[in-house]
Amino acid sequence: MTMTARKKVVLLYPRNHFEKVYHPWTWAPLPILAASAPLFAEGFEVELIDANVDAGWRQRLVDSCRDSLLLGISCMTGPQIHFALEAASIVRTAGLELPIIWGGYHPSILPEQTSRNKYVDAVVRGQGEVTLLEIANLLNQGEDFNEVDGITLTREGNTVTNPSRPVEDINKFPRLPYEKLDNPRQYLNNMHVGSRAINYVSSQGCPARCQFCAEPLVYGRRWKAYTPERVLSDLEWLESFLDVNGIMYFDSTYFVKESRAREISQGMIDRGMKFGWAANARAPQLGRFSEDTFDILKQSGLWAFLVGAESGSESQLTSMQKDIKPEDILEAARVASNHGIKISYSFIVGFPGETDDEIEETWEVMEQVSKIVGEYNSQLHFYAPTPGNALYEKAVELGLRGPESLEEWAQFTTVKGRLPWMNNSFQNRMKQREFFLVYGYPSEWVRRRAARSKLRRVYVNVATGISSARCRHHYWGLPLDWWLLRGIRGAVSEG
Fold this sequence. Notes:
Mean pLDDT: 93
Radius of gyration: 24 Å
Shape: globular
Strand order of the largest sheet: 2-1-3-4-5-6-7
Structural class: alpha/beta
CATH architecture of the largest domain: Alpha-Beta Barrel
Helix content: 40-55%
CATH class of the largest domain: Alpha Beta
Strand content: 15-25%
């Protein structure tokens, strides 16, 4: 390789949706922020491109790559692969031969398959901060990166997986450089935790072994966390730089150590920080917290625990190795409610081999939670296979045709269930049942929407009256009301 004059790296965060945004918020691209921090610290010029907010990302990508050492792309399974491939194709079509390095969850789970694509020069597996920095330094010196630990690459048809790199203590890494983003304030969101809320992550990995999740595959059930002092320092910086008044923790699991969570919250109180926050938790953790811990968490601004319940069926929870029981889900709702803290659950239906009785057990738990907390504050998702685990293999046994190339994975969606056992009728029945819970136990969000206009108020009152009756009598048949109300919902939203 020849020496490159400019010490520059381009990092792309591809669009994560095809036609519309899945949620109404715009979050900072934490994966490329994390990858860029060590590069900035060593004097590299780094161009951060977030295709989710930059309408002109295609032309900007080509222009930026003309004098760059490498293009780094971080992606998850689904639409991001589609746009990552498009981006790489654009770069190559422009005649640019700089190395294209892929990282993130999907490439880390399927590094060999990913590396065999013609638009992939190497895959960075797992934690990528040190690996990418080493690659950039070698390229800057005009040297090859083929022997770097932690990468998989295919050259001349031969795929090589180099030794894994030890997971580093993330406290060694510099602060995430939010200030390097284009217009960082565009990532502030008006939501429950605050009118100027931003996403932040204080740890990597998760010690749980859930068989539907990518975390155990990427981080090997290892959990690395910032120290309380590091978190407090970062929060103070965000508060000063962006006038943040809300934090959405994007940690896979935040409350692994009660003492750490408590120390961070106490530090927030002592430093006079005034903002709300929410974070992911596992249900059994909340049942073990002391009274004092709940008091400190709430005083520090904790608005909600975000809990992945996944199922209300004990047999399904056992099958997916969730290591919780339905009673843990209910107890977490009780303790959170008793301490005046919101709790929001995510549930999944359509697991491979899941029976109607097991799905009904999930609905029963969802309704019991709604009664405990006084509102429906959960989210229902359809199972989407993550490659590399036991549930994925079971899905293949039941008829899933697993994508065999990166291009095929680009068309795979993790939002809508498209599996042999999930037809439109099944999905409609699940959506109907959730609709009845949403309006049978209306949340604060539903009530606020109803207050925005007379038309919305009438709609919510009618939906609530019918759905409440259905919930009282547990009657879910003849969903004519669902079809009718869904049909007029668009007009109501515009009113």
